[in-house]
Design a protein that fits this description.
The complex is a heterodimer.
Chain A: E1 5-7, E2 10-13, E3 19-24, E4 31-37, E5 43-50, E6 53-56, E7 65-69, E8 75-79, E9 88-95, E10 102-103, E11 107-111
Parallel strand pairs in A: 2-11
Antiparallel strand pairs in A: 1-3, 3-8, 4-5, 4-9, 5-6, 7-8, 9-10, 9-11
Chain B: E1 4-6, E2 11-14, E3 19-25, E4 32-38, E5 45-50, E6 54-58, E7 61-66, E8 71-76, E9 85-93, E10 96-99, E11 103-108
Classes of the chains: A mainly beta, B mainly beta.
């Protein structure tokens, strides 16, 4: 029974490097969401896909952040020229239409 | 002022106690109200989901929404050590979720 799958589960990289995070949503879910969770804080919305288009990118913190979704399935979140403040857990969720969102276990990103 | 306010705790209770978790919000446009449970190093897990004022019960959990006061609650009856986790309230607005900061709950035997 496949839930939302995210990879890698952990990523450690040096400041200034680019990173790519992957999300495989639940099969058949049309909507896909990315959130960021900093230590001791709630989840912060980044971007949302309906199908392959992104009607709401309002949460992306800077132009170093981008995301795409292909085939109404897999999504990748890319962070260019990483900074230490990018260290966080990046969570992906999916849902069918406007039904509740179901989350993966996240990618724990550490920038040295 | 944050759109969703939640006491971070920690809240420590003995096994068997009734737990009350609360959130307040400022945006009357919120459409749906949810509670998620998050264990350490795991993603949030949906517990309760509602869209109207009133109570919704599921086993030991009861979610309460008061739209006139902009206040939601989650009650846990007969709390167990396995309920020890962080509880996040969330509210939906045009598809995206706005979360509280989470309340950390510890249930001791």
């Amino acid at each position: 029974g496949a839930g939302v799958s995210q990879s890698p589960s952990n990523k450690v990289t040096e400041k200034g490097k680019d990173v790519e995070l992957r999300c495989d949503p639940i099969s058949g879910h049309t909507a896909l969401y990315w959130y960021r969770q900093r230590l001791g804080q709630g989840l912060e919305f980044l971007i949302y896909f309906q199908g392959n288009s992104a009607p709401d990118k309002s949460g992306l913190p800077s132009d170093r952040f981008s995301a795409e979704r292909t085939g109404e399935s897999v999504s990748t979140l890319t962070i260019q020229r990483t900074q230490q403040e990018d260290s966080a857990v990046y969570l992906c969720a999916s849902s069918f239409s406007n039904r509740p969102q179901h989350f993966g276990d996240g990618t724990r990103l550490s920038i040295l | 002022q944050k759109e969703v306010e939640q006491d971070p705790g920690p809240l420590s209770v003995p096994e068997g106690a009734i737990v009350s978790l609360n959130c307040t919000y400022s945006n009357s446009a919120f459409q749906y109200f949810m509670w998620y449970r998050q264990y350490s190093r795991k993603g949030p897990e949906l517990l309760m989901y509602t869209y109207s004022s009133g109570n919704k019960e599921d086993g030991r959990f009861t979610a309460q929404v008061d739209k006139s006061s902009k206040y939601i609650s989650l009650f846990i009856r007969d709390s167990q050590p396995s309920d020890s986790a962080t509880y996040l309230c969330a509210m939906s607005l045009e598809g995206k979720l706005i979360f509280g900061t989470g309340t950390r709950l510890q249930v001791f035997p």
